[in-house]
Amino acid sequence: MLSIGIVGLPNVGKSTLFKALTNKQVDIQNYPFTTIDPNVGVVAVPDERLKPLAELSNSKKIINTTIEFYDIAGLVKGASQGEGLGNKFLANIREVDAIAHVVRVFEDKNITHVHNKIDPVGDIEIIQTELDLADLQTKEKRADKKKSSPAGELPELDLLSEKKVIFVLNVSESQMSANWQPDDKLLEAMNGRDYVVLSTPLELILSEATEDEKKEYLAGFNMKEPGLDRLIKQSYKTLGLVTFLTTGEDETRAWTAHEGEAIPKASRAIHTDFEKLFIRAEVINWKTLLEAGGLVPARSKGLVRTVGRDYIITEGDVVEIKI
Ligand SMILES: Nc1nc2c(ncn2[C@@H]2O[C@H](COP(=O)(O)OP(=O)(O)O)[C@@H](O)[C@H]2O)c(=O)[nH]1
Ligand SMILES: [Mg+2]
């Protein structure tokens, strides 16, 4: 399963974010491969397509795709030199597929900032410097190894600064109401990478609220959906993933593939043997299927395509794999 590590300086809202995410943990019964680990939250990727498809097929179950979030203990200035949890922290980052970098934007005199001032740009630079310094050490070690084994092939370097990043700009509730947006300096520091703006205490409240309360809170803050939903969806995009779907009486289910993947490889998500056994597949866009009113009428209108091994899986495909 793909994983995102939550990182950031102390007291920026990482644990609050993680707690809100774990309130959205999926039902372990439907996801038997899920491990139970207090530092890992397995959350469903929200997908508005599943419900109407399930209604169309009279499905007994709906199963979303999932992402794992890891709460990685606080990074401090000097971590690459062993400060704080230092190298343990950096080792944890090495294991995740992408980083959610929480940046403190909210002001609160009662909650200390490690460097005593709210400075999102400076905070981003500190974390990036630590990641760069850790990479420098990795490269130096590599250079030493090369000297001692001149002929041997060494595995590719796993550099922290090359991991995909999504910035979580943690604002106050009043900034949220005022539709706070990053200024040019902050945009420059984020350097074109993805970001979401949210308020972690508000997200915690939303994650514990009933459906009615949730609607009320969202309307009050002029939000269409919880920030967590935006974060989860954005993480999925940042990781370069696409969703394809299967639907039937048993279940309507979303599956994860990588962008640009051919359908036999993508179908490994359903069953590892499918890549080898794949013969052909029937494919129809989810919306086209809904508009047609089901697979049977869609087939008779010629809307279902039969594709071979070289077909590239596309966001929103509903597939039936023939093996
Ligand atoms: N006022 C305010 N406090 C926050 C916000 N986000 C987190 N906090 C508080 O800041 C403190 C540190 O948060 P925590 O999530 O533990 O930060 P971590 O050290 O990054 O894990 C806690 O007391 C939180 O309740 C926020 O957006 N506004
Ligand atoms: Mg914490």
Automatic annotation (TrEMBL):
Residue stretches making up the OBG-type G domain: 2-218
Domain of life: Bacteria
Protein's UniProt keywords contain Magnesium: yes
Cofactor(s) named in the record: Mg(2+)
GO molecular function: ATP binding; ATP hydrolysis activity; GTP binding; metal ion binding
SUPFAM superfamilies in alphabetical order: P-loop containing nucleoside triphosphate hydrolases, TGS-like
CC annotations in GO: cytoplasm
Keyword NAD annotated: no
Record keywords, A-Z: ATP-binding, Magnesium, Metal-binding, Nucleotide-binding
This protein's name: OBG-type G domain-containing protein
Provenance organism: Candidatus Yanofskybacteria bacterium RIFCSPLOWO2_12_FULL_43_11b
